[in-house]
Amino acid sequence: MSSTRITRRNVLKYGAMLGTALAAPALIQGRALGADPIKVGFITDLTGPIGASGQAAKPGLEFAVKRINENGGLLGRPLEIIAYDAQSNIQLYTQYAQQLVMRDNVDIIFGATSSSAREAIRPIFTRQNKLYFYNGAYEGGVCDRNTFCFGTTPGQTMRRLVPHAVEKWGKKVYVLGADYNYGQITAKWMTKYATDAGAEILGSDFFPLDVADFSSTIARIQGAQPDLILEVLVGSNHLGFYRQWEAAGLKNSIPIAAAAFGVSSELLNLDTSTTEGILTSFGFYDTVETETSQDFVDAMRQELPDSVEVTEVGTSHYEAVTAWAKAVELAGTLDRDSLIDALESGLSIDGPTGRVTIDPQTHHTVRSIYLGQAKGGKWDILDSYADQPPVDTAMVCDLQANPDTNTQFVIDI
Question: Who's near 275: CB < 8 A, 6+ residues apart?
Answer without folding.
Answer: 242, 261, 266, 267, 374, 377
